[in-house]
Design goal:
Blueprint: E1 15-16, E2 24-26, H1 28-35, E3 42-47, H2 53-63, E4 68-71, H3 79-90, H4 110-122, E5 127-131, H5 134-137, E6 142-147, H6 150-158, H7 173-195, E7 201-204, E8 212-215, H8 216-226, E9 236-238, H9 246-250, E10 262-266, E11 272-277, E12 280-285, H10 287-292, H11 294-298, H12 300-306, E13 312-318, E14 327-329, H13 333-340, E15 348-355, E16 360-365, H14 371-382, H15 390-393, E17 394-398, E18 404-407, E19 413-415, E20 419-426, E21 433-436, H16 452-458, H17 465-471, E22 477-481, E23 485-491, E24 498-505, E25 509-512, E26 518-524, E27 527-531, E28 540-543, E29 547-550, E30 556-561, E31 568-575
Parallel strand pairs: 1-11, 3-5, 3-6, 4-5, 6-7
Antiparallel strand pairs: 2-8, 7-8, 9-10, 10-13, 11-12, 13-20, 14-21, 15-18, 15-20, 16-17, 16-19, 22-23, 23-24, 24-31, 25-30, 26-29, 26-31, 27-28, 27-30
Helix pairs in contact: 1-2, 6-7
Length: about 575
């Protein structure tokens, strides 16, 4: 970390959308005025779970004065029945459940739904239907979708807000997140996708900003625009018990915070897109783009393989000035499918952005160890009988800047203190089996979840010292080495579906997507421009450590340094076929 370097990292990347300035509004007075300008009888506001329904309802009471308000919660089963129906998918685990593939209607009392529909048909005057599932009662004369990113929902859970139709303000936020991740967000996304083409207005209810509204056609135009140009997601940063200090400086974060452990900078499932319509900011979950423009974003092969899901994830793990991550392992594909209902697992890798003296990566088991003895040692350590003897069982490799460690599922791993990692992985991030957490508590003062029973079922004991050195540690293959540029294939392992390459140059380089999505990070150099060779999109500026996405609809793109002759290095990931 260069103490004299000034951060140029953009924490609020924004996509300018032209032609819809008059269809964007800020503040509830103007929002309600626009929604009701044609004197509708029925206004329906469909809401994503976590949206503050009471706040929106109060605004419409104040500025529209509806005769009748129908709360969509009334069409759902009572809380106890909902919990009974969800129990097998939520499980007793603190973190993980089983993925739910049904729909919102599975949790609706059809008799109650019919009663609410009769109220609407028989009612007179102004009727407001509001909440999650409101559109199932009636889409009304005007249909508004009130949205929220999953990150904002998680922050609200931490602050004491409840899951949908629950009274769980004091419940462990991890359990609230689990209900969202495995059930609520899944059924809400399905409902949202069915409405996107029909909404009249899109309402952004992110907490940091004044509420803002854009026409439905404006939102869809923004999503179509994004699928045809390079873009970044809005990153977020979170502290952790093992967190470090690197991101504070490089990403220009609050220096008064104790640490930052994670940054999600390239995870459409979690991050937002930030649109500007004539200066009015609209935040939209990036999954809206994935669901609405899957072929244009992902490409034909990737879409055929994964559906409308984004399979690549980039995030930061900062332990510079911090502590070791927990010793962990990810499940095999068979295990994650059979136990958690997920179609693929979290294969990953650690690309080293920076490292202090002594930084390193724990990876694989040592040769000749007794698996039963190691598992017994882990369990006894968890019971507090002694410290786990990691030096006896686990390999530890020193790490330096631009090293790349591959971590196929089933491989024990973690980064040590003093290491800044760009984690490149498949998307299902929640399935980490922690085996040992170095005798510490989480920031909430509670022991962090440990899953030795799951972990011991998926550890690949053949991933020993010799195998790891030959297959997973800086396994580089030079593709091109010339005066103009160098291209090196750095992974991933043949067992993993993501391929990564590192391109180093002082000149502009031309890249071909092959009709599939590319995801990149500028891992060296102050800034570069991404340019269309045929002018299909405007030049796009990228700064050091920023992750950016090239949609599959872009066939070719050029990367060039902003300062002529300045060296830059990008790591590029894509889904490998064949």
């Amino acid at each position: 970390m260069n103490p004299t370097r000034k951060s140029n990292y953009d924490k609020f990347p924004t996509i300018e959308v032209k032609g819809f300035d008059e269809e964007a509004f800020r503040g509830y007075r103007d929002i309600v005025s626009e929604v009701t300008k044609a004197s509708p009888q029925i206004v329906c506001i469909e809401c994503y779970p976590g949206v503050r329904v009471e706040e929106i309802g109060e605004a419409f009471r104040c500025y529209w004065n509806p005769t009748m308000i129908i709360d969509s919660r009334d069409i759902f089963f009572d809380t106890d029945v909902l919990n009974e129906k969800m129990a097998s998918h939520l499980t007793s685990d603190r973190v993980r459940g089983v993925m739910y593939y049904g729909s919102v209607t599975d949790f609706i009392d059809l008799a109650r739904l019919e009663q609410c529909r009769r109220k609407v048909s028989e009612g007179g005057g102004r009727i407001l239907i509001i909440g999650f599932g409101a559109s199932l009662i009636s889409r009304g004369d005007v249909l508004v979708y009130a949205d929220l990113t999953r990150w904002q929902a998680q922050l609200r859970y931490r602050a004491g807000e409840c899951n949908f139709k629950q009274h769980n303000a004091d419940e462990d936020p991890l359990i609230k997140n689990k209900r969202g991740y495995f059930i609520e967000w899944r059924i809400a996304d399905k409902l949202k996708v069915s409405l996107l083409e029909d909404i009249d207005y899109y309402l952004d209810t992110e907490e940091e900003y004044e509420p803002a509204l854009i026409s439905g056609r404006g939102l869809l135009a923004a999503l179509r625009l994004t699928a045809k140009r390079p873009f970044r997601l809005v990153p977020y940063f979170d502290p952790g018990v093992w967190g470090g200090q690197w991101m504070k400086e490089v990403c220009d974060l609050d220096r008064s915070r104790k640490n930052y452990a994670w940054s999600f900078d390239g995870v459409p499932e979690e991050n937002a897109l930030r649109f500007s319509f004539g200066g009015i900011i609209i935040n939209s979950p990036a999954m809206n783009l994935v669901k609405y423009q899957p072929r244009e974003l992902l490409g034909g092969k990737t879409f055929s393989r994964f559906g409308a899901e984004y399979p690549i994830r980039f995030d930061f793990l900062d332990t510079i000035g911090g502590q070791n991550l927990s010793l962990q392992v990810h499940p095999t594909t068979e295990y994650i499918r059979s136990k958690f209902g997920m179609p693929y697992t979290q294969d990953e890798s650690y690309y080293i952005l920076d490292a202090e003296e002594g930084g390193g990566v724990y990876l694989g088991v040592k040769e000749g160890i007794d698996p039963e003895e190691m598992i017994r040692d882990l369990k006894e350590a968890q019971q507090g009988l002694h410290r786990f003897h990691d030096e006896k069982y686990i390999n530890r490799f020193p790490a330096k800047k631009h090293d790349h460690f591959l971590i196929p599922a089933g491989t024990i791993h973690c980064s040590s203190a003093g290491t800044m990692v760009l984690e490149i992985s498949a998307t299902p991030y929640i399935f980490t089996f922690k085996l040992w957490d170095w005798d510490r508590l989480g920031l909430d003062g509670l022991p962090r979840p440990i899953h030795i029973e799951d972990g011991e079922k998926v550890i690949d004991w053949s991933r020993d010292t010799k195998w790891v050195k030959e297959n997973l540690v800086c396994h580089f293959e030079t593709i091109h080495d010339g005066e103009d540029y160098q291209e090196v294939k750095t992974g991933l392992h043949e067992l993993e579906f993501i391929e990564t390459r590192v391109i180093t140059s002082r000149k502009e380089t031309t890249h071909c997507t092959g009709g599939e999505v590319n995801q990149l990070n500028l891992v060296e150099g102050e800034e570069v421009d991404v340019i269309s060779p045929d002018g299909r999109f405007e030049p796009f500026r990228v700064h050091y450590a920023e992750t950016f996405i090239i949609p599959a609809s872009i066939d070719r793109y050029v990367i060039r340094p902003v300062q002529p002759g300045a060296e830059y290095k990008v790591v590029k990931a894509c889904v490998r076929f064949g």
